[in-house]
Design goal:
The complex is a heterodimer of chains A (167) and B (187). Chain A is mostly helical and 167 residues long. Chain A has two domains: 51 residues, no CATH class; 81 residues. Chain A contains six helices and no strands. The longest helix of chain A is centred in the middle third of the chain and has 49 residues. Chain B is mostly helical. Chain B has two domains: 88 residues, Rna Polymerase Sigma Factor, Chain: A (Orthogonal Bundle); 71 residues, Arc Repressor Mutant, subunit A. In chain B, helix 7 packs across helix 8. Chain B is elongated and about 70 Å long. Classes of the chains: A mainly alpha (167), B mainly alpha (187).
Chain lengths: 167, 187
Amino acid sequence: MIPECSREADVLEAIAFGRLSDATEPELAAHVAGCPVCRDLADVARALHADREAALRDAHPPTAGMVWWRATIRARAEAAQTAMQPMTVLQGIAGACVAGATAALATVAWRLAGASARLDDLISYFASGRGEFASGFGFEHALLMLVGLAACLVLAPLALYITLADD
Amino acid sequence: MTVSELGRLDAEAQVAEDTFQMDEDAFRVFYDRTARPVWAYLSRMTGDARLADDLLQEAYYRFLRARVTYETDAHRRNYLFRIATNLVRDERRRPRVASTPIGGEDDTDCADPRSSDPAAAAARRVDLGRAMTRLKPRERDLLWLAYAQGSSHQEIADALGLKRSSIKLLLYRARRRLAALLRERER
């Protein structure tokens, strides 16, 4: 059960208009002094009302034009970011396609060039101290293949990064 | 004004028209009527004037972007206070770094010039500020909206996202606590 008083509204109104005192509202002031509900209400409402008045005096909000302008700028930036979002997804898909195509091409090229045989040549060349290398032609091809692979290892991540970078 | 500037302004106006729920003229009228009470609420609930400035901008931005159909002007205003309340709530959860306190020890400059005793008025404000910090955040919101803002129970319920039927009891308890704290300080 919440204790109530029928004069609470009168007290609030008197405080809102700054006339709750012995001089202006003696009868109401006497009631407030004797009623615990109204006394709590008056103490709290008076303090908060005065604080609000002070806060309103302190308040120096920016102009409506400034707030509107900032909001417009922000909305525009967010709209641009939203518009860019599908592009980022597409860029990701494109990057993955590029990586896949590169890998497929490298595999095909590897097979066409008989790379495993060339690698064997290369290994045997180094193992025998260049003496028993099957053919000079094969060695050159194997070396080229290795340089190509190394270039792919460096360039592929770079290409991927450039493709996926937002800016 | 150059052609490119005109084009830019036109583009900005188009963005605003597409994104915001009201045009600039209507916003100006609404803002002029509500900005100061909202700022007062934000500053007292956060205890930080600079933060209140930032939150004010954020509150109006969210308000403008909200796709809500307002039945009345009061509904629109309550919705704005609801946004402000949520911002304050979010801010309370964040760790505080630095602030420009309001109602601190040296608050005599802000004393009510119409008061017969500015020093006493400032002291009362300090007492209130300290007492308010000992209340729960929701109690502070309730008391401010009810007795500083003069909002009805329905408006408070809308602004704080509470049931209207529970406002009376919550308000009574908060009021009793604050009254006791204020009296404790007077002694």
